[in-house]
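User: Can you write out an input/output pair for a complex, sequences first and structure second?

Assistant: Here is one pair. Inputs:
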Amino acid sequence: MAEAVHPRGTKPRRRLSGRNIMLYGTLLVFSLYYILPLWVMVMTSLKGMPEVRLGNIFAPPVEITFEPWVKAWAEACTGLNCDGLSRGFWNSVRILIPSVILSIIVASVNGYALVNWRFKGSDVFFTILIFGSFIPYQVMLYPIVILLREMGLYGTLWGLVVVHTIFGMPILTLLFRNYFSSIPEELFKAARVDGAGFWGIYFRIMLPMSLPIFVVALILQVTGIWNDFLFGVVYTKPDLYPMTVQLNNIVNSVQGVKEYNVNMAATLLTGLVPLIIYFVSGKLFVRGIAAGAVKG
Amino acid sequence: MSYSIQVKDLKLDFGAVSVLKTLNIDVAEGEFIVLLGPSGCGKSTLLNCLAGLLDITDGEIWIKGKNVTWAEPSERGIGMVFQSYALYPQMTVRGNLSFGLKNARMPKEEIDKRVARAAEILQIEPLLDRKPAALSGGQRQRVAIGRALVRDVDVFLFDEPLSNLDAKLRSELRVEIKRLHSRLNNTMVYVTHDQIEALTLADRIAVMRGGIIQQLAAPQEIYNRPANLFVAGFIGSPSMNFLHGATVDNGRAFQFGETKIDLSGYDGGAVLDRPRAILGLRPEHLLIQTEAEPGRTLPAVVEIDEPMGADSLVWLVAGGTQMSVRVPVERRLAPGTRVHLKVDISKASIFDTESEKRV
């Protein structure tokens, strides 16, 4: 029989228990599952076409070439234009920046007013707003075409900005409302006794306390608007197509040889912006989501 | 007499629910008024109405001879201190103190002067450049008081300012608030559910329940002559002993079971004969003795005693009713001991069972 150990101090932990093997094994399998497609894409995008034709999709490139990336960015043809994804990229940027700024400004003021300056029917207003997020986009597609046409915005960049702002409203307002309602009401009351008005309280009290939720809104909107395809293709014209639409046109073109390496590079390029945003602000994002979710 | 605050027929409804029911209060200049009551009685709501943070349904509010019923909170000449301190977390203490003055577009020198004075009075000068997160609870509440102080107003409103502090700090700040009041001599309206705070601080206490003021009087008056059963039961710890019985012999005696207690010397109105009445006796107005005195004592049996340091609390049963009596701590009584309780009728209260009002 083993010598009886007299328990004292920190309890020893076994590293290689069956539990740990199961846990880390599962984690490993899942991470492989998610990383493999990315691996294939990156590798393929760095190969020349002859090497791609060999069909070893998991193998790293024998000869690394950035040719496909250059071609995807600057030379790939969509329709009559042969200046690659760069045109779509700049279109997307021009759509993204005003849409994100406008929608976040409007939604944050909405949320603030709904929490702190309740008016008759504010609950009804909020319910209707939230209800809007449950209606499928397709139902509203054509009516909005008519609306934009009547306003003279159809086919313009600003038309698309308006659409993005409106469709971001329900979820963003909900987000901001929940966050602001977690800020103690007494703070708001104290500011009123101190003589601050609607905008004074918004800018001087609420805004400085709300950085995390603004980051969350920023990420949601940047990824959502950047990844949007439907509105981009419906409400703009070919000159103004955002990057996603252009990517689709490059990848799905039926003329000539399928250039898998260029397609992969183009797809990676398109996904780069949301990826960067996630990596830069991931921590703030999680914190903000958690904060906004506390109160309903 | 000039009034600092006058509330005239104030009513407040939330939808169909009536929260405040026709309140009338006149507060004299420099008076310390405490609004006391259980949670949900409307005391904080009334304070919010005075501050202008809630729109009232009907009635008028006057502050310093001006009708401020429709005025914004910042225009009413009030300063307010909240339970959760409500300091602006992103500003330093100095920023917190000067925020309201900046909003009023006051010149910078004047702001600096007032902040310095408030910091001196509250002894928070070393903290001026710290953020609220770096302060203790007591320091935060000082800053919150300072925020009301710099406004240089005549009326201070306190909304349970000490409820978030621990017992020791609470009693310290309580004294400090009282000192502040005697130094500044401005009008203070103070909401609390703590009767010790109410009894120690107030010039007058307004005991509230269900949106109605039950009694508005000086602390001693409220303690000795509670207007009704609710006030009698709410004030005092442990609470008043209630004996259910009847008044007989043309209101000259109280019949409690077999025992008759002589009512001569009662401090109140005409007792009359009431088939159902309640005799209220505070624990410190009863005396435990071994021999019976007809008309002066009632028999009881000791259940337990609780020594509490300064004195001791004895729980007894008399005629099926549980009672408590305060005795010197040296006096230990074994459970089951038969004793007689001598009643000090001059300090007792008699309530009509139907109306619950003091006779």
